[in-house]
Predict the 3D structure of the following.
Amino acid sequence: MTVLPSAAPQATTADCPAAEAAHPVVLSSEQILNLLPHRYPFALVDRVVEYIPGQRAVALKNVTFNEPQFQGHFPGRPLMPGVLIVEAMAQVGGLIVTQMPDLPKGLFVFAGIDGVRFRRPVVPGDQLLITCELLSLKRRRFGKVRADAKVDGERVCSGELMFSLVD
């Protein structure tokens, strides 16, 4: 289950001196750790390459053979579990939802997963490019994002992810 804090520190262009106010903010792994509560082995976002707080995020997940799931999924043919692909997409979506202004304090958790489809396996050595866009925010408690993950320009997974604020 993805757990995301609300009212996390707002990322600004001051957090990334090279960025200008008119351009999206790029977030390093250290900045991501300040915005999401996930830690090893569940910190699945390595870098954010495009970021418009409260609207859109594009991030990278480097898939390496050293990750613990590959010991058993599957010996001799390592494949990234679909649930971890969805989790990585949710973490990118969480960067959007948790940065919405004026949200009450609490944690955001998965509330639903709609229309998720897997199109090809993800293997060690791949780099996931994950794009998430906010679709809606209702009653300041429920968020919905459209998520898309690609490897080398080819879609590997997509769908809609819903989050709910837990008091």
